[in-house]
Amino acid sequence: MGSMASKQVARRKAISSEKRALCDLNKSCGCEFPGCDYHPSDHKNWMDGLNPEKVHINKIVWPGTHDSATNKIGIPCISRPFAQCQSLSIYHQLVRGTRVLDIRVQEDRRVCHGILKSYSVDVVINDIKKFISETQSEVIILEIRTEFGHQDPPDFEKYLEEQLGEYLIHQDDRVFEKTIAELLPKRIICVWKPRKSPQPKAGSLFWSSGYLKDDWIDTDLPTTKFESNLKRLGEQQPCASRKFFYRVENTVTPQADNPILCVKPVTGRIRGYARLFIAQCLSKGCADRLQIFSTDFIDEDFVDACVGLTHSRIEGKA
Fold it and tell me: Which residues form the Phosphatidylinositol-specific phospholipase C X domain (predicted)?
């Protein structure tokens, strides 16, 4: 019992120290970067506002959400706080400016996060279709994966093609160098990551797992995650040289050996430092590698930071 208590005291000290370190870094270095003062006039149509003929796919800093479809996961006030990473529906995330969705499914096509489940993936698809019907030039990266420990939904590629086929952008390495205007009227890059089923074939409507990569660091320590994200990003090639999307997640996650297991207070340790991260990318010379940047509980300021850097790239200022 005594050793367990000592371990918890040490853990709390480590968390407190790392929170303070990020705060101090923010105070000493600031969070200014090219485009940091840019604010899109319409978050729902921010890609259109940047001019689709000028926006190349490999110049976009894509604002994404982590565990996107968890707004109604589990049981309210009981299990939901342990798995909820977003409070908005998929439609309202897209309206707010999200352009990369992280959707986890289980065998019966219900959205899930670990052992907790939510609504049918049909809800996600309908929200996406509604958003697309209301906009003209917004491109979405839709990542759908079979959650760890679950089985692939049967005939899932067929289902996705039936639902989204008219909007899907074919798997093609040349897409990265194209502008949004060159892809229209197609609107969705769908990355399908099954666990046991065959990966999507080259040239198909779906993109295989190798086209969306990340280095997931599972920790609730904010500075550890922040520095690891910078290090791993710095090891990547510049966006202009890559033929895949690379994601950095501005999140920390609850750990089983810590008494605080609810997502919101834990991820809040790093959530407010997205602008600092971008500024540090510039400072360390790896800003040209930043591509997909995702978060829990997305807000407009996070979107503005991503769009601002995108705008600066397009204007040749970053």
Answer: 51-193
Q: Is the dihedral of CA 211, 66, 227, 82 positive or negative?
A: negative
pLDDT in the model for residue 195: 96
- The model carries a pTM of 0.96
Rounded-to-integer distance, Cα 120 and Cα 124, Å: 8
Cis peptide before 153 (omega within 30 of 0): no
Closest CA to 211 of 185, 192, 225: 192
Which H or E element spans position 189? strand 188-193
Residues in the chain: 318
Report the distance separating Cα 272 and Cα 280, nearest Å.
Answer: 14
Distances (CA, A) of 306 to 13, 101, 159, 167, 295: 32, 15, 32, 24, 11
- 53 burial class (0-12, 13-18, 19+ CB within 10 angstroms)? exposed
**Domain architecture of the chain: domains with CATH:** 24-314 (3.20.20.190)
Contact 293, 273 (CB under 8 A): no
Least Cα distance to 73 among 19, 15, 117 occurs for: 117
Task: Return all residues near 294 (Cβ < 8 A) that are at least 6 apart.
Answer: 63, 64, 65, 66, 100, 102, 247, 248, 249, 250, 251
| Mean pLDDT of successive 10-residue stretches along the chain, which has 318 residues | 71 93 96 97 98 97 98 96 97 98 98 96 98 98 97 97 98 98 98 96 96 96 98 97 98 87 96 98 97 98 98 94
C-alpha 285/C-alpha 71 separation (Å) is 36
3-state helix, strand, coil in the chain (%, to 5): 45, 15, 40
